[in-house]
């Protein structure tokens, strides 16, 4: 698979796993327009690939992501556009939201490694991930309102992740908190103290993912994500259709045969 050329991201493919590292360490990996565009292109490539079964999203230099690059937002122009003109700030914001939603809808399993600054958009990435790990001293928060801004493209994903009651508290106070509280809130799934513990937990999760059939995982994720967005009967009707397609597809016969023969299926790592 040929991946897009990037300057704000580091990409490393390894046995069905794509490691994507946000690489603006001098800015604590704050999101500028170029990084948003490059993430968008990489996510498109992942969605089109049959090779990638898991994506590990991490930040360079000890920080995950400090949110939006506000210097660039302001540089977009504070003067309101003339009637009929496109608003560059509105377009910037909406493009970020579209990219964040695309990350959450990837057919591959998305793993977020949260350490250092996990603020604004960085917290948004944790909300759209399938699995999130947090370093115990990582600093989470939605500081937008303390800067006179709403977390406009992030708040909806926070509500989906942890529910309305806690989302209201976090979004309306600008409170910052550490990794263990993020775990208690349900923002992340596991905490780690150091790199050694992270690698142990990450390797265990990747091993589990790579023993699952990739198309079955993609279909399962699609069903799960529809629950909050569609009438339940429509979700179940669609799930039944996808189940039938999977039964007649290539993975189910192999998976059932492997189970009956007490062996690993062909898609499992190491077979």
Automatic annotation (TrEMBL):
InterPro entries linked: ClpP/crotonase-like_dom_sf (IPR029045), Enoyl-CoA_hydra/iso (IPR001753), Enoyl-CoA_hydra_C (IPR014748), Enoyl-CoA_Hydratase/Isomerase (IPR051683)
Species classification: Bacteria, Pseudomonadati, Pseudomonadota, Gammaproteobacteria, Nevskiales
A UniProt-annotated Pfam family: ECH_1
Organism of provenance: Sinimarinibacterium thermocellulolyticum
Protein known as: Enoyl-CoA hydratase-related protein
Similarity section: Belongs to the enoyl-CoA hydratase/isomerase family.
Database matches in SUPFAM superfamilies: ClpP/crotonase (SSF52096)
Membrane-spanning residues: none
Domain of life: Bacteria
């Amino acid at each position: 698979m040929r991946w897009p050329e990037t300057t704000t991201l580091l990409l490393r493919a390894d046995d069905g796993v794509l490691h994507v590292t946000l690489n603006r360490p001098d800015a604590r990996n704050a999101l500028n327009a170029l990084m948003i565009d490059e993430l968008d292109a990489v996510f498109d490539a992942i969605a089109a690939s049959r090779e990638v079964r898991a994506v590990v999203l991490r930040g360079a230099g000890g920080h995950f992501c400090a949110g939006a690059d506000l210097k660039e937002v302001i540089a977009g122009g504070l003067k309101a556009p003339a009637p009929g003109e496109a608003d560059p700030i509105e377009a910037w914001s909406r493009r970020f939201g579209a990219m964040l939603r695309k990350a959450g809808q990837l057919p591959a399993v998305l793993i977020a490694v949260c350490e250092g600054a996990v603020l604004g958009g960085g917290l948004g990435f944790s909300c759209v991930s399938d699995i999130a790990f947090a370093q115990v001293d990582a600093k989470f928060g939605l500081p937008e309102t303390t800067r006179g801004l709403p977390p406009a493209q992030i708040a909806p994903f926070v509500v989906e992740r942890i529910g309305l009651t806690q989302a209201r508290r976090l979004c309306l106070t600008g409170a910052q908190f550490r990794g263990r509280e993020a775990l208690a809130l349900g923002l992340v799934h596991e905490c780690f103290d150091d790199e050694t513990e992270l690698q142990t937990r990450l390797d265990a999760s990747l091993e589990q993912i790579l023993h699952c059939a990739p198309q079955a995982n993609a279909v399962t994720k699609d069903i799960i994500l529809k629950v909050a967005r569609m009438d339940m009967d429509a979700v179940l009707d669609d799930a039944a259709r996808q189940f039938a397609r999977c039964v007649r597809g290539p993975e189910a016969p192999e998976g059932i045969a492997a189970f009956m023969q007490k062996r690993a299926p062909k898609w499992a790592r190491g077979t």
